[in-house]
Amino acid sequence: MTTDPAQPQPSTSRRPSNIVLIGLMGSGKTTVGKLVAHSLGFSFIDTDEIIVKNAGKPIPDIFAAEGETGFRQHETAALQQLLNQLQQHAVIATGGGIVTRPENLPLLKQLGYVVWLYATPNTLHHRTAHSDDRPLLRNADPAGTLRNLLEARADLYKLASDLKITTDDLSAHDVAYGVSESVRVEFAKQSA
């Protein structure tokens, strides 16, 4: 497993003891997030589930009715809702494009310790090839779309994250173990 501390960030000591997972679709945020939550005894929250519940319709229908811009507004609202209901000891999985709105970056940091689950475009394409609920991949070249999205968002993921974990050659359980152990160390530093 490759872990990289992201560029220096302000102290996390004032942030809640939550783990926020970011990364492109297919990076494993939901799968890994549930495993990490179980391992640590944390609750699991998926911002996509909050959006679907608040909108009363599935994500592809939100994209169809409001476009990507409308969906991104729903993401920001979900982050603000989580901050208003702030809790401790949660693993929060976010949508892949949540970093594309500048106002979301400080919201992510306010929610907790941010971990970027990174995978190469080839790995992401393999993981998402059989999924039909990803509106941005409904085109003739989903692999190319993933390459372009990663290229466009990599600097934003780096800016938003406290830690980057490369997941390509790892099982979800291995990644979850790495996340769990990394945050245990970080949270122990915060409480020292």
UniProtKB/TrEMBL annotation:
* GO BP annotation list: amino acid biosynthetic process; aromatic amino acid family biosynthetic process; chorismate biosynthetic process
Question: What residues does Mg(2+) bind to?
Answer: 30
What's an example of a GO molecular-function annotation for this chain?
ATP binding
Cofactor note (record): Binds 1 Mg(2+) ion per subunit.
State the reactions this protein catalyses: shikimate + ATP = 3-phosphoshikimate + ADP + H(+)
**Which residues participate in ATP binding?**
26-31, 134
**Mainly localized where?**
cytoplasm
The UniProt subunit note reads as follows: Monomer.
Name of this protein: Shikimate kinase
Please tell me the species this chain comes from: Phragmitibacter flavus
